[in-house]
Amino acid sequence: AKSETLILNDGWTLELKFDGIRAVLHMNDGQVRINTRNEKDITTSFPEIEEVAQKLFNEHVVLDGEIIGYNSNGVQKLNFVQHRLGVLDPSKIRERQRLYPVLFVVFDVLEAGGRKLYERPLTYRREVLASLIPDELNRIVMAQSFPVDKMNQLWTFITEQNMEGLVAKRKESKYYPGTRSPQWLKIKHHKMRVKT
Predict the structure, then answer these.
(1) N or C: lower Cβ tally within 10 Å for the chain?
(2) Beta-bridge partners for 15
């Protein structure tokens, strides 16, 4: 396949592209709900994420991110997430929770503290997100963001970890629910040449 060339400048930031399922977490009046992109409620499949959200957030929040599975070596496993979905029996849910561990990697906050943040720039939303999620490793973590001059190091890491690629985001980008915005670009490492 022919590769495309993408030119990035300091107005962009980079995030790792995770191989999991996109999810939106809602915390409202002490109740947690986790939805897929298609609005399917998957909360019962991931009780550990629900439990951590109950402890972390004491106000209304809406978070966008990716649920990823990982093995004992920290390698991402998409099938771990798939094994967790659609299980209704509580004992089987607990067993799969042990066998197929997952994290919720959060890359955006849409609402917090009674404020809708869709129109605010990404840099501001990430500051709010950092104030909501502690640094220590937990079942809910904040996605790291990297400057574009770290591109070569990131490609090396992605290749070593056999990851999909990167997501480039404009620092001033707003959040457009339900649409694919040109302000966020997926970069797959075998299809794209990038100039910085």
Answers:
(1) N
(2) 167
Tokens 């399922």, located at residue: 21
CA atoms of 144 and 68, how far apart (whole Å): 15
CA distance 161 to 68: 14
Strand-pairing partners, residue 195, are 7
Model confidence pTM above 0.85: yes
Is the predicted pLDDT of residue 193 greater than 70, yes or no? no
Q: Can you tell me whether residue 50 is helix, strand or coil?
A: helix
List b or e across 41-68, with b for residues whose CB sees 16 or more CB atoms inside 10 angstroms: ebbebbbbbbebbeeebeeebbbbbbbb
Residue-wise pLDDT for 10-53, tens only, equals: 899 999 999 899 999 999 988 999 999 899 999 999 999 999 99
Give residue 112's Cα distance to chain centre.
Answer: 17
